[in-house]
TrEMBL record:
Source organism (scientific name): Saliterribacillus persicus
InterPro entries: Uncharacterised_YqzF (IPR020138)
Keyword Transmembrane tagged: yes
Keyword Membrane: yes
Transmembrane segments: 35-61
Protein name (record): Uncharacterized protein DUF2627
Keywords, alphabetical: Membrane, Transmembrane, Transmembrane helix
Amino acid sequence: MRVIAFLLLLIPGIISTFGIKLMRDAFFGLLTPLFYHLIIQFIVGLLLFVGGLIFIGGFILHRDRKRRKTKGRFE
């Protein structure tokens, strides 16, 4: 069961890391062959980063609510 939870957090972590790489490359002017413009590359990187971060944060919040560690703040 812990392996499945680890994989559920590993995949969005990798996606967020790729998003950071895309944003960094766009900031320094390195165009990835998947995209035609640096702006599009930066926006896709930002979306990947934020999406992965929201998924990980939601997973942790769900786990803490389940274990009743939120003290009623996020009910």
